[in-house]
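Tokenised fold entry reproduced for everyone:
>
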Amino acid sequence: MIAIIAASVLVGVLLTAAVYLTVIRSSSMRLVPAKEYKRMQAMEQRYGKLWKMQNMVQNNALNYVSVDDQMNALYAALLKTYKDPFSVYMTPAETKSFDGQLNGTYSGIGASLEEKGGKVRISRIMEKSPAKAAGLKDGDVILTVSGKKCTTIRRTMSLLRGKSGSIVHVRIQRKSGQKTYAVVRGEVSSDSVTSAVLRHHIGYIWISAFQKDTASEFKTELSELEARGVKGLIIDLRGNGGGYTDQGIKTADQLLPACTITSMKSSSGSRKYYNSDEECTRLKYVVLVDSDTASSAEIVAAAVQDNHGGRLIGTRTYGKGIVQKEFHLSDGSAFRLTVMQYFTPDGRSIEKKGITPDIVVKQGSGSTDRQLEKAISVLR
């Protein structure tokens, strides 16, 4: 009797379930877990208004705007609410361009330079570069770039770079005489560290940016200059807008004995210290800075100043005492977000303040690099 009752109940349950499932399927409904339902409710509450508004705009607006443009504007607006100029959204194309620049790809002619005998020479022409295609050769002395005199490596490299596809006129000196070449700038990859030996046997290293291999490149150039027996060293951070934070820290480590390089504080308030070891160069050095020296370059400059590694020469730095992290998204886009604030070894915040050099020297409007000349004078 009990078995018959149990069987009848089971049959009833199965029939009810079958009818219930038939109704659900016929009405295009499906069962979802309670947790998933709550998540969907939360999404509706947060984004439902935006969805409705976007549809109303699309159906009624006089002018047409693509959905992609609408969404990119929304993503960008999200970052703008933080009122931080360094927290930005980037489209896939913008992300590719930014990452390329950060990793050493730029628009120029593809030639490495050196300063020798008071002149700027081409030390190496890159293979398949615009410079090689135009006919420039290793050893060419660069006199002018688009009519402007080339007195220093930094000035020359700055003049040679420009928009891809644009033409730059390079006048050079060879044993056979002077000649002007029209070079079409293109996308090239280069090292971020350039070195030379200046007069009075003083070494010179220009770090244009802190790319993914800058610290190792700096180590190589520094070792070569030490092997050549230079009397002192000028480290040029002018125009260096920063880059990878870890590369700035690793570069400072090569200049300083055991000490604190910087400390960083996160949004949670936790603080992390970055220290150097005892091993460092024995060369006497100075560091050149200007108003375009920023971020990771300022970490290096501040570490040198606070730890009395060498004197800073030039003008007040930019004042970017915060650190961004880049978050990549599945469609190739990305966004940069400020996630930390850093402090100098003495605990100073340089955000919107910058670093005042030990020796302030304004560049002036002439062709003479007054800051570089002062650096040479100090080292002598």
